[in-house]
Every structure is written in structure tokens, then in C-alpha cells.
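FORM 7B - TANDEM STRUCTURE REPORT

SECTION 1: FIRST PROTEIN
SEQUENCE AND C-ALPHA CELLS:
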Amino acid sequence: MVTTTKRNGSTWYACEGCGMLFGERQDAADHEQACDGEDPDYLQ
């Protein structure tokens, strides 16, 4: 499930599994389908 958060006056969409943020809800939803639930191995 994609969650919504506000930071610096902007709306961001977060993967509930790993917490990675996206600017577009669809990008977050697409990512979440393939997410393994672990933290990303690169800096956000």
C-alpha cells in the first residue's frame, strides 16, 4: 500500500515496504509490486 507524506510543501508517495519516496503515486505503486521490503541499497 502506498502512503502519502508531505515534506517541504510537496506531496510524496512512499512504498510501505521499504520507505522509498516517489513524486508520482503510480511510480510508487509500480515499485511496490516488485519491492522485497528491505531498505534500498542506495541513498535516497
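SECTION 2: SECOND PROTEIN
SEQUENCE AND C-ALPHA CELLS:
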Amino acid sequence: MAIEKGIDDPVAWHRLGDAYLALEKFDKALDIFFQIEQKSPDNLSLQVKLAQVHLLNNNPDHALAIIDRVLDQKPGWRIAQLWQARILSRQGRFVEAIDIYYRILGENS
């Protein structure tokens, strides 16, 4: 793979991580996204991607912790709020998830 051969192309890294995610190879996707995170620790979109992988890898508690940190840094970010609601739904916390969805919809009305 290009990444393993030392090519330092961020787009290639993201594509590789997304490919592993699409193939449901979550551990490999996490490895790739963690490597990207080392170079861009303040990238909030990447943090949301990490939360997504953790959620799909049946680790909703870790996913929620990541999203909470993202929302601490960027309150009101709808993408992060949507993921927060999805994670809460996965945890069976439906009332909290619905409250977030209503809050998001209210901002768009």
C-alpha cells in the first residue's frame, strides 16, 4: 500500500481509512485514522470520523466521549450533534437523542 511505502499524502491516508471502514475492517480503519490524528490532532472532522469508527466497532462509550470533546471545542456543530444523537440511540438513550434531533431541527426552522 502507498501508506506503508512511506508516501506522505493525507488524501491517500483518508481514502485508505475510508476503504477499511467501508469494508468493515474497523481495527485497520482505526489504525489509519490514529496515524492521521498524530499529524492533525486538532482536526475536528477527523475526530468525528474516529467516533464513527468506534460506534461501528461496537464501542459507543468511546465514540460518545470523542463527540463530547468535539462539541466542547465547537458547540452547536450540527454534524457532531447528529453523531451524538446516533450514538445515544445506539446506547438506548432515545429521549436524549430525540432532544438533540429536536434542537437541531429547531435551529433550522
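SECTION 3: OBSERVATIONS ON SECOND PROTEIN
The chain has two domains: 1-41, 42-109.
The radius of gyration is 15 Å.

SECTION 4: SIGNATURE
Preparer initials: ____
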